[in-house]
Write a structure and sequence with these properties.
The complex is a heterodimer of chains A (479) and B (784).
Chain A lengths: L6 E4 L2 E4 L9 H7 L18 E7 L5 E7 L12 E3 L11 H9 L8 H14 L4 H4 L10 H16 L5 H8 L7 E3 L5 E4 L3 H10 L4 E3 L5 H6 L7 E4 L9 E3 L3 E5 L4 H7 L5 H9 L3 H4 L4 H6 L7 H7 L3 E6 L2 E6 L4 E3 L2 E2 L6 E8 L8 E9 L10 E9 L5 E9 L6 E2 L1 H7 L6 H14 L10 H21 L10
Parallel strand pairs in A: 1-5, 7-9, 8-9
Antiparallel strand pairs in A: 1-2, 3-4, 3-5, 6-7, 10-11, 11-16, 12-13, 12-16, 14-15, 17-18, 18-19, 19-20
Helix pairs in contact in A: 2-5, 14-15, 15-16
Chain B lengths: L11 H6 L15 E7 L5 E7 L1 H4 L4 E5 L24 E2 L5 E7 L2 H10 L1 E6 L6 H6 L8 E5 L2 H7 L2 E9 L11 E6 L5 E5 L4 H12 L6 E5 L14 H14 L3 E4 L2 H7 L6 E9 L5 E13 L5 H10 L9 E10 L13 H19 L3 H7 L22 H12 L1 H14 L3 E14 L8 E8 L5 E5 L8 H13 L6 E3 L2 E2 L14 H28 L7 E4 L2 E4 L2 E7 H10 L5 E7 L4 E3 L4 E3 L3 E14 L5 E10 L7 H20 L30 E6 L24 H12 L15 H13 L12 E3 L6
Helix pairs in contact in B: 6-7, 9-10, 10-11, 14-15, 15-16, 18-19
Classes of the chains: A alpha+beta (479), B alpha+beta (784).
Chain lengths: 479, 784
């Protein structure tokens, strides 16, 4: 690793970070440096008021602006990178997204507005300005209609003339590749190595080190100062962990690939993955969160483990002892406990794309039920796969759930029962008692045990209904 | 004309560029200190000992504040003094601040707060309305409003239903949490910046805790990042604690609650329990209603009495009820002290009667919209007079009702939906229409006054001050329009000043939807005063001797009889200065003809009523209980709109906030009284994706309101209750899963609640036709 000056570029102005702890959040740093346009609404990455745009590289190496929650980003993660905040958009004129928001009455109290502006800004240069762009921004005043109208105005503007301004110039000239980094000189150390071997060496040297990729989970601890982190090792610069490989029989997804990239690159491959990613948090989080992180935290309410369980995903683990392959179903050992050994990490996730032998068709879908459809933690998440022969007999079934046990889990007895049965509503009825007994969920603030048990059964029926109606294969909004 | 134009919010450019300054976004002052609370881990407990030693040793800890540091009253109660700022003997709710740490940074204050050791002896808390009723834990005596003889009428009625409804509380979730700055000047004066809807009351409370007179304290509210009632009284304690810190240290002090503290320390919309007994005829007309409302006041009284009053005054909503008795109690629980929130009790009262309407309709197998319409206030005299004796002299219910049905194609869509439901097994749609009638004026008569201060400078530029605060509702924008219209000058001449108690004293809270009604008249009054002083000057310049013919228009001044000869406004101003004419003036207004006898429960508490009606359509998934709001049509009466962009924003925003309240915003306390939903990860307010694709808002046309500023009407709160149409639409969709009969739906109508309702109607036997009564109790969910 090469010694570099520690800097950050904000709205084109470069600042020295030497005196700033690497686990200072970007939001806190902005405020400390007098940039109070970016607001804190929650410090949880759930309201979007702190949204900024970060210059990032896409899969093909070009540059783009991505909306991110600055409250969850330790400044180490954005050291030597370029940030755009709400203060940096207007010159003598308002930026088109700002002008649209003024025109439509998109701001009332104005406190959430900078976050909306930055989400719209990133979407403006991404070429798609719709509800999805702002679903991670909460507004309590407007009821969103004028913001939706502003988005429509911006869309119209892009359709007329492609954006061409100092921000597109910057994109064209930018080299957003992440250089390796050692951010030292503070009680907290932050490393951003480029090679997997360096990560393993660092883990060996610092057994108490924490791995961080997008930091959408760990960032909560940092944001709320609930823990200190003597050593953080960022995986963001490790090219080996950021690849998606596709073969005839499987897809291999690097553990540190952001979910938004998976969403784009694998669209149409797995209906259940498409659907769940659509409901996964909001775009600011999807731009940061990774598949490895969603699995590694081993939360029983993680959105993606049920999907991956339903697809028989296999983890490729790497540690000082070498590599090993572990079916995901064997990875979860207990509440927030995994089979991961000290010094070991998830390198990639392999998801088979082939059907069971003799199968001619696969039905695959996922469901997420929360109090709120968008950007909520699930009460129950479920993902289902059935492989069918040409007589519509079930040759293979996977019924995976989140939110119903201490770990993401499959309904094994129900799966076994389905084998060889015809894929009919009658079979669904017959399997219901097994599903009812499959789990003993808990009651919590999100939902009662009774409701969760109901959903375990009903979601499988919904899966059958949706598949037989053929309407929901490509993902759609509930109900 | 600048009245009636779609002028964007006066701070819109500041909002979108991040330049608009809020209290805690001002430039940090040298030596500024920060506060952090030590919070109680019990809902009710005796404080045995407080040990500050370890905290004081923390690096960066300046001092710690407790009751001994309060020079004046250790109390921030606004109606009665029952709200200890620093509890000395007992904590009364989970998370109550017991000690505040003062640090050179917020992080240092936090570290110090974590080192404070408080010993408690836990006591048995009262955590639910039911438990409070059972233990007779009340804040006040029962209030009663009665018309006619409901007891006798209930005995003679054809049909009778009784039941109860638990109405859920709601967190304000303004994006800017509670925040205050206090800057001592070293001479015993205090400049306070506060995110407060009621600067004069914040000034009062700060003066009281410091033991000084009000003129020693100036409270300024730059603007608020949302409030919705949550900063009407709840901003006071944080200004007070910062003032005590400033007094003790002599340094400027800031406090800004983090989201978790904001949600666990501050009051919410009151949860209610409503019990009712209603009599009605075979054609669905209510003959008598006996109702008892229990408001969950929380640990202290705060603004609960007027909230309860408004609930009792709105239990009729749009309906004529010949015999009605409503009783109200405020229960005392060991929870946060519940407070003002958009609608101020109105929504809770109205939800009860809308529940009753639906039960009557389904019991009689009549369309709910027909039962609602049959019960409307109508005609003149008794049938158009509320249970508290105020006649609806300009009843616009049928206008909004018929107009919204026509615009929404209600009848045709109802037919289409019936057909859809015939063929769809797992998904059902529902369509519903509900009305709103909402009384405008503060219940507290003396609050219905306002002041303004207009300063014209010799260059023709103007500063406008008024007593109202800006929380996003567009009040400042409207006030600028009123001033520009009245003075006949360009909007560009004005600078809107931050609301400050040294400019306009003794102001009322910006609340009760009254901001532009009250302050608008005061601003207009100030403008008229200055126009009257400038007119003779202009007449002299123009060579006339009839100042009464002078017209101010288009930034120019001329004589009505000879408009060709004009002088520029600034020329008149300059001449006035040279002629030694005063160029500043106050304006004042008080709402006329208000009366209220709280003992008799009779009077004319409202200056007028605002009306609206909404049609909502939903689709419910019978397997999961999830629903999608498909379409919303609204006709709302804002009088002659001063600013349609602002007014639509209020209607849309209020509707969505109401929809959140009724469908997803669920506050959950555990068995120890700890709030478990204290962040947006667990407390879900609507996002853009919950908004229907088709959402049409129409402002009622030809609707000028006599006696209100430029014919406009109040708009902040009334549209909140239009969201009841969503709940009723869900109920209609749920009903389609069954074979008739009643639909028991608890609030909020979360997917879990909806699925339970679907299962209940599927379990009901075939409808037995009119008159059968199915006991119904939609009870608040047990706290988990």
């Amino acid at each position: 690793m090469v010694e570099q000056p520690l800097t950050i570029s904000i709205n084109g102005q470069t600042a020295d970070l030497t005196a700033v702890s690497p686990i200072t959040t970007l939001l806190h740093y902005l405020h400390q440096s007098g940039r109070t346009g970016t607001k804190e609404g929650c410090g949880d990455g759930d309201c979007g008021a702190c949204t900024v745009a970060v210059l990032c590289s896409t899969a093909d190496g070009t540059a783009q602006y991505q909306a991110m929650n600055s409250c969850l980003i330790p400044i180490g993660s954005v050291a030597n990178r370029e940030i755009i905040t709400v203060e940096g958009l207007a010159d003598e004129h308002l930026h088109p997204v700002q002008a649209a928001m003024v025109q439509t009455g998109g701001s009332q109290c104005g406190y959430c507005t900078p976050g909306f502006i930055m989400s719209l800004f990133a979407a403006y240069y991404g070429g798609k300005v719709d509800d999805t762009a702002v679903e991670g921004n909460l507004c309590r005043c407007t009821g969103y209609l004028p913001i939706r109208k502003a988005a429509a105005l911006v869309t119209q503007k892009i359709a007329e003339t492609k954006p061409c301004d100092r921000f597109t110039e910057k994109l064209a000239a930018a080299d957003p590749a992440l250089e390796p980094l050692q951010y030292l000189g503070h009680p907290e150390q932050f490393y951003r190595p480029a090679q997997l071997s360096e990560v393993l060496d660092l883990l060996h040297q610092h057994p108490n080190a924490k791995l961080i990729a997008g930091g959408t989970d760990l960032g909560l601890e940092i944001s709320h100062q609930r823990q200190t982190f003597p050593v953080l090792i960022s995986l963001e610069g490790v090219t080996d962990l950021k690849q998606i490989h596709r073969s005839e029989t499987a897809v291999e997804i690097g553990a540190a690939v952001p979910l938004s990239q998976i969403q784009t690159e694998l669209r149409g491959v797995f209906p259940s993955l498409d659907e769940m990613l659509f409901w996964f948090a909001a775009c600011q989080v999807r731009n940061r969160a990774t598949l490895g992180g969603n699995i590694g935290t081993a939360s029983p309410i993680g959105d993606l483990p049920p999907v991956l369980l339903s697809l028989d995903a296999v983890l490729n683990l790497v540690g000082s002892q070498g590599t090993r392959r572990l079916p995901l179903v064997d990875f979860f050992k207990g509440y927030r406990q995994t089979d991961l050994q000290p010094g070991e990490l998830i390198r990639s996730i392999t998801v088979p794309t082939t059907l069971t032998p003799d199968a001619v068709r696969r039905d695959n879908q996922s469901y997420k039920i929360g109090k709120r459809g968008t950007d909520d933690i699930s009460i129950v998440a479920a993902a289902f796969t059935v492989d069918l022969d040409n007589a519509d007999r079930i040759l293979h079934g996977r019924l995976a759930y989140g939110g119903v046990a201490a770990i993401p889990a499959r309904a094994i007895a129900a799966e076994a029962f389905l084998l060889g049965k015809p894929w009919t509503i009658e079979t669904v009825r017959q399997v219901k008692p097994l599903l009812q007994q499959a789990f003993t969920p808990l009651t919590d603030l999100r939902g009662s045990a009774h409701y969760r048990s109901k959903l375990v059964v009903n979601l499988f029926e919904k899966f059958f209904v949706d598949m037989s109606e053929g309407g929901d294969r490509n993902g759609h909004r509930h109900p | 004309m600048v009245i009636g134009i779609r002028k964007p919010h006066e701070s819109a450019e500041g909002h979108v560029t991040g330049k608009a300054i809020y209290t805690d976004e001002q430039r940090i002052l040298a030596g500024m200190l920060s506060l952090y609370p030590v919070t109680a881990p019990h809902a009710k407990a005796r404080i045995l000992n407080i040990d500050l030693a370890a905290a004081l040793a923390v690096e960066g800890c300046v001092t710690l504040l407790n009751a001994a540091d309060v020079p004046g009253h250790n109390n921030t109660g606004v109606i009665v003094a029952d709200e200890m700022l620093f509890p000395t003997e007992e904590v009364s709710h989970w998370g109550q601040a017991v000690v505040w740490a003062v640090g050179t940074t917020e992080a240092a204050a936090r570290k110090a707060a974590e080192k404070v050791l408080v010993e408690y002896e836990p006591l048995e808390p009262v955590l639910t309305v039911a438990a409070a009723i059972a233990t007779q834990s009340f804040h006040t005596r029962t209030q009663t409003i009665r018309r006619g003889d409901p007891a006798a009428a209930l005995h003679q009625t054809d049909h009778r239903l009784s039941g109860e409804l638990a109405v859920n509380p709601q967190d304000h979730f303004y994006l800017e949490t509670q925040t205050s700055w206090v800057i001592p000047d070293g001479e015993g004066h205090y400049q306070v910046y506060s995110s407060t809807q009621h600067p004069s009351e914040t000034q009062t409370i700060v003066a009281e805790v410091l033991g000084i007179s009000r003129n020693q304290v100036v409270v300024t509210c730059p603007r608020m990042g949302g409030a919705f009632g949550g900063k009407e009284s709840q901003a006071n304690p944080y200004a007070a604690v910062a003032a005590i810190a400033a007094h003790k240290t002599g340094c400027p002090v800031r406090v800004k609650l983090n989201r978790e503290h904001d949600m666990t320390l501050t009051g919410k919309r009151h949860g209610f329990l409503g019990r009712y007994d209603v009599g009605f005829t075979q054609d669905g007309k209510i003959t008598a209603l006996d109702a008892h409302l229990y408001a969950d006041g929380g640990w202290s009284l705060d603004l609960s009495p007027p909230v309860l009053s408004r609930a009792m005054l709105h239990i009729d909503n749009a309906y004529y009820i010949p015999h009605l008795e409503v009783r109200g109690d405020i229960v005392r629980t060991n929870k946060v002290s519940n407070t003002a929130f958009r609608g101020f009790g109105g929504p809770q009262g109205m939800l009860v009667i809308e529940e009753v309407m639906d039960r009557i309709a389904r019991t009689l197998n009549l369309p709910p919209e027909l039962v609602r319409e049959r019960n409307f206030y109508h005609g003149t005299g008794d049938t158009n007079t509320t249970h508290y004796g105020q006649e609806l002299f300009d009843n616009r219910l049928m206008r909004v009702w018929e107009e919204v049905q026509a615009k929404a194609h209600f009848d045709a869509r109802k037919e289409e939906i019936a057909q859809f439901n015939q063929t769809s097994t797992y998904k059902k749609r529902g369509l519903a229409i509900t009305p709103v009638k909402f009384g405008i004026s503060f219940n507290k008569v003396c609050y219905n006054q306002a002041g303004a201060l207009l300063l014209i400078y010799a260059d023709g530029s103007i500063q406008l001050n008024h007593g109202g605060t800006e929380m996003g509702q567009g009040l400042h924008t409207k006030m600028l329009q009123v001033a520009a219209q009245t003075l006949g000058v360009d909007l560009q001449r004005f600078r809107m000043m931050h609301t400050s108690t040294d400019k306009v004293p003794n102001t009322s809270a910006t609340a009760a939807s009254s901001g532009s009604d009250l302050n608008g008249q005061a601003v207009k009054d100030a403008c008229e005063t200055l126009k009257a002083r400038l007119a003779p000057v202009a007449a002299r310049l123009l060579g006339y001797d009839a100042p009464e013919d002078i017209v101010f228009e288009g930034d120019q001044v001329f004589c009505r009889t000879y408009p060709a000869a004009r002088v520029a406004f600034e020329q008149v101003v300059e001449e006035a200065y040279n002629s030694r004419i005063s160029l500043s003036a106050t304006g004042y207004y008080r709402t006329p003809n208000l009366s209220w006898d709280p003992v008799a429960g009779k009077g004319r508490p409202f200056y007028y009523f605002a009306y609206g009606a909404a049609v909502s359509e939903v689709e419910v998934d019978g397997l999961t209980g999830t629903f999608k709001l498909r379409q919303v049509d609204i006709v709302h009466d804002v009088g002659e709109s001063i600013n349609p962009l602002v007014d639509r924003g209020q209607v849309e925003g209020a509707f969505v906030q109401g929809m959140g309240w009724l469908t997803m915003e669920e506050l959950v306390w555990d068995e120890t009284g700890r709030l478990r939903t204290f962040a947006p990860s667990t407390y879900k307010i609507p996002t853009v994706s919950e908004i229907p694709e088709r959402f049409e808002v129409h402002l009622l046309e030809r609707a000028a309101q006599d006696g209100v500023i430029y014919g406009s009407k109040a708009v902040g709160e009334p549209p909140f209750m239009l969201a009841m149409s969503v709940r009723e639409a869900i109920r209609a969709a749920v009903a389609a899963f069954g074979q008739g009969g009643e639909v028991c739906l608890s609030t909020p109508a979360t997917p879990e609640a909806i699925l339970a309702a679907v299962e209940a109607v599927q379990a009901l036997p075939l409808s037995r036709g009119g008159g059968q009564v199915i006991p119904q109790t939609a009870v608040f969910k047990p706290l988990e």
